[in-house]
Design goal:
The protein is of the alpha/beta class. The protein has helices at about 40-55, 80-90, 105-120, 135-140, 150-165, 205-215, 225-245, 260-270, 280-290, 300-310, 320-330, 345-360, and strands at about 15-20, 55-60, 95-100, 125-130, 170-175, 180-185, 195-200, 215-220, 250-260, 315, 335-340. About 45% of the residues are buried. The structure holds flavin mononucleotide.
Length: about 375
């Protein structure tokens, strides 16, 4: 992969990305007045701060429908490939992903959209594939979700077709189980003729196997209490992908609250995950997973945990604490983290000024 495909292959041993900024409230299910609006001017400002500050990537969420509640959590969302294209036009160095639901995007339209983004960014576009889970979103598209294994069966054909569109010069047919495409041509090819960096966001073993066969990265969730399990999974991904003759990076997700003191950070985190949380939206998220008061004896406990579960690994504290926690993730063998903030614009400067230099001093970044 040439120096052009750029921030995902740079010298930073541990990559830093911002996650979820294309959605209102980002990933924190909160009612605070400063919660993220996700309007274009704010997104643009965030991207430029991150780019100038030395972040490696920006990763959106593929989301089509909000969760209700007083804030309609994630009810306002930019479609991610067009969002990435706009951000690539106003930044210089960082990679911007599209998070794309394979079943909802015709592969030829998707392949060409992504090439457009990649040319605008001169090789800085990357793809995060999701196969989806949320029924009301599929219903909006007039689709029924496939059985779990078939979701990846379809994904496998979808990405294989797309890779051919990105590389083959002559017209070709792609006739498979789910796709029947005839006399396909797709020009131009991605920037420098190189396939963009591809991740798969998943938790299951099937999703992990899909990532190992077809992607450059596996994007998954680990929480603080399963560091042992995370270490095991990362080791296994490395061993299994090498057996397939491939090298796969493992990425994870989290949420950062960094303040000058640990006390301030912890108080803010405690507030927006309890009193400041949007519990009506939280109940809807549980309902979508078929968890209700009627069928779940420990419903109240589950409900309280959602604001924490939703944001993944919590990285809370002073700049020293945040750097130390990121170091722990790096030591597991994870290649990078995509994290959210309650407000991406107001919270970025402290990270750039205080945390990034610490990571450099720790040898995690060039
Ligand atoms: C880290 C991570 C990020 C994800 N991001 C999204 C997303 O942006 N949109 C979405 O609809 N699903 C997202 N998902 C869910 C995926 O769509 C995936 O289909 C779901 O986890 C079910 O597949 P699995 O059983 O292999 O995990 C994400 C999953 C993980 C683990």
């Amino acid at each position: 992969m040439g120096a052009g495909r750029y921030q995902m292959y740079n010298q930073n041993g541990f990559k830093l990305g911002l996650f979820g900024a294309n959605c209102s409230s980002g990933r924190a299910i909160n009612k605070l007045p400063e919660r993220w609006s996700a309007d274009w001017q704010s997104c643009k400002k965030m991207a430029q701060l991150a780019d100038e500050g030395g972040f490696d990537f920006i990763l959106p969420i593929g989301r089509w429908k909000g969760y209700g509640g007083p804030t309609n959590f994630q009810g306002t969302t930019y479609e991610t490939v067009t969002w990435a294209t706009g951000l690539l036009a106003v930044t210089q160095k960082l990679t911007v992903f599209g998070t794309v639901h394979a079943p909802m995007f015709n592969p030829l339209v998707a392949a060409k959209q992504m090439v457009t983004a990649d040319h605008v960014g001169e090789g800085r576009f990357a793809l995060n594939i999701v196969v989806g889970w949320n029924d009301p979103e599929f219903q909006m598209f007039g689709q029924q979700q496939r059985e779990h294994a078939d979701r990846y069966g379809y994904g496998e054909e979808w990405i294989s077709a797309m890779k051919q569109m990105w590389s083959r010069k002559e017209p070709f047919d792609f006739d498979s189980n789910f796709l029947h495409l005839h006399n396909v041509v797709s020009e131009p090819k991605p920037w420098n003729g190189e396939t963009p960096f591809i991740m798969n966001a998943a938790a299951s073993d099937v999703g992990r196997a899909f990532a190992m066969r077809h992607c450059n990265g596996f994007f998954t969730s680990f929480r603080e209490f399963d560091v042992g399990r995370a270490t095991e999974i990362v080791k296994q991904v490395k061993v299994d992908s090498r057996a397939l003759g491939r090298e796969i990076d493992v990425y994870t997700q989290g949420h950062v609250v960094c303040r000058p003191t640990r006390k301030e950070a912890q108080e803010y985190f405690d507030y927006f995950t309890t009193e400041g949380a949007d519990f009506e939206a939280i109940e809807e998220i549980l309902r979508l997973k078929d968890i209700t008061r009627a069928n779940t004896p420990d419903y109240e406990e589950r409900r309280k945990k959602v604001p924490l579960m939703n944001i993944g690994y919590p990285i809370i504290g002073s700049p020293d604490d945040v750097a130390e926690k990121l170091g722990r993730i790096h030591n597991i063998g994870i290649s990078g983290i995509a994290f959210s903030l309650v407000n991406y614009v107001t919270e970025l400067p402290l990270l750039v000024e205080e945390v990034l230099p610490r990571l450099k001093a720790m040898g995690m970044r060039a």
